Write the structure tokens for this entry.
Amino acid sequence: MDSARRPLPAAVLAALEFDSGPLFRCGNLQVVFSAGARSMNMVIRFVVQMVVGAFLFAVVAAIAYLLWLGTQWLEQQGVPYHIALGARALTELLFGLDALCFVVFTVGEAIKFVRDIVRNF
């Protein structure tokens, strides 16, 4: 019999099932999920989520800052007041929405983190 066609043992197949097996997926990270490491896995997942959220906040904040610099340059060039006011309002709106979304994301992730801790312990 060809060794490439042999089926995998049942124990190996059970271990490869991510929903009920010993592996837990966090984005592209695969962390070994055992009883002793359960709290550490939750902390790692929370930290990864916060790092991603902070990175996205920084990207949008950098865009808002560049737009603000462009607004300053437009004002120095003597553009009409209503155009400069619109550009400034857009800059403030973009940064404000970015900060609001970051706060909502952070609170939501903190609530999920606390809920997971309470559920698992």
In short: Helices lie at 10-16, 38-77, 81-120.
